[in-house]
C-alpha cells in the first residue's frame, strides 16, 4: 500500500484557494487536509465549515478535517455537511470520545483520533478499535512551518506495532513538519497518510511539489517501507 499525501491548506494562498487545491490534486495528492483551529485549544484561529465546503467543491479528493478545537461535538454535523470525508478530534478535548467517534461515523465520515506530541499512546487503549485512523502530531499544534519532532518517530513505530498486534486496520496519519528530507523516515516508521503544508504550498509550484512528494511515496511503497 502506498502512503497517501494530504496537502494542508493551512499553508496555501487563500486568495486562490480553489486553484491551489486543484494543483495539489493534479500533482498526485490523495486527500486535502483542513486544519481547523479555534484560538482556545491551540493559539491560532483558522477556518470553519464554509472553507471546508469550498475545498470540497474544488476537488474530487476526500476532504480530511482535523478539528483542533474545544467541544468538537458541537461542530461535527456542520463539518460533515460541508463534505468532510474524514474528521479527527483530539483525545485532549473530547470528553466522551467513544460517543464522539460514533457520532462522526453516524454522520457518514471516517472518524479519527488525534494526539499531541506529549500525549502518550496509552490514551488510545480504549478507543483504538473504534477509530478508522489515528493522527499523530509531530509538532505542537497551532501554527504551520514548525520543525518536525524527531522523537515522534518512535511513537509512530510503537503505534504501528500496537495496531498489528491487535489485528486492526487502523491507519496512521502524521501531521507536522514533514518534508522530502524526512519523508522516508516517517513512512518507514509506519505512516499511511502524510500531511504536508509548507512542503507543498510555501514555495515553487504546488503541482510540482505535490508530485515530488507523491512520487517519493510511490517509490517507498515499491521497496515495502513501513509495511
How would you characterize the overall build of this protein?
With 227 residues, the chain is an alpha/beta fold. The chain is 35% helix and 19% strand. The chain is built from 8 helices and 8 strands, in the order βαβαβαβαββαβαβαα. An 8-stranded parallel β-sheet has the order 1-8-7-6-5-4-3-2. Strand 2 (32-37), helix 2 and strand 3 (63-68) form a beta-alpha-beta unit. Helix 1 (17-27) packs across helix 2 (49-58), helix 1 packs parallel to helix 8 and helix 6 packs across helix 8. The radius of gyration is 16 Å and the shape is globular. The chain starts with a strand and ends in a 5-residue tail after the last helix. The mean pLDDT is 95.
In short, what is this structure?
35% of the residues lie in helices and 19% in strands.
Descriptive labels:
227 residues, 8 strands
Task: Note the beta-strand portion.
Answer: 15-25%
Query: How would the global form be characterised?
Result: globular
Rg, Å, rounded: 16 Å
Largest sheet: 8 strands, parallel
Helical residues, percent: 25-40%
Q: How do the helices and strands follow one another from N- to C-terminus?
A: EHEHEHEHEEHEHEHH
In order across it, which strands form the biggest sheet? 1-8-7-6-5-4-3-2
Please describe the topology of this protein.
Layout: E1 4-7, H1 17-27, E2 32-37, H2 49-58, E3 63-68, H3 76-81, E4 84-90, H4 97-106, E5 110-115, E6 133-137, H5 152-166, E7 171-175, H6 183-189, E8 193-196, H7 198-201, H8 206-222
Parallel strand pairs: 1-8, 2-3, 3-4, 4-5, 5-6, 6-7, 7-8
Helix pairs in contact: 1-2, 1-8, 6-8
Amino acid at each position: 500500500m502506498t502512503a497517501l499525501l494530504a496537502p494542508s491548506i493551512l499553508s496555501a494562498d487563500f486568495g486562490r484557494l480553489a486553484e491551489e487545491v486543484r494543483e495539489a490534486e493534479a500533482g498526485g495528492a490523495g486527500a486535502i487536509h483542513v486544519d481547523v483551529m479555534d484560538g482556545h485549544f491551540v493559539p491560532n484561529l483558522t477556518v470553519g465549515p464554509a472553507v471546508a465546503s469550498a475545498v470540497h467543491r474544488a476537488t474530487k479528493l476526500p476532504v480530511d478535517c482535523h478539528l483542533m478545537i474545544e467541544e468538537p461535538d458541537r461542530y461535527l454535523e456542520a463539518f460533515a455537511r460541508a463534505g468532510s470525508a474524514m474528521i479527527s478530534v483530539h483525545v485532549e478535548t473530547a470528553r466522551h470520545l467513544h460517543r464522539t467517534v460514533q457520532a462522526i461515523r453516524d454522520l457518514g465520515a471516517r472518524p479519527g483520533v488525534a494526539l499531541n506530541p506529549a500525549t502518550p499512546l496509552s490514551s488510545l487503549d480504549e478507543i483504538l478499535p473504534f477509530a478508522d485512523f489515528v493522527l499523530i502530531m509531530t509538532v505542537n499544534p497551532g501554527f504551520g512551518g514548525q520543525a518536525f519532532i524527531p522523537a515522534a518517530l518512535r511513537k509512530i513505530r510503537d503505534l504501528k506495532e500496537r495496531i498489528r498486534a491487535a489485528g486492526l486496520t487502523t491507519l496512521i496519519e502524521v501531521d507536522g513538519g514533514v518534508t522530502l528530507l524526512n519523508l522516508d523516515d516517517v513512512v518507514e516508521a509506519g505512516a499511511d497518510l502524510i500531511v504536508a503544508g509548507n512542503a507543498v504550498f510555501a514555495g515553487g509550484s504546488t503541482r510540482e511539489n505535490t508530485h515530488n512528494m507523491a512520487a517519493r511515496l510511490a517509490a517507498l511503497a515499491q521497496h515495502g517501507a513501513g509495511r
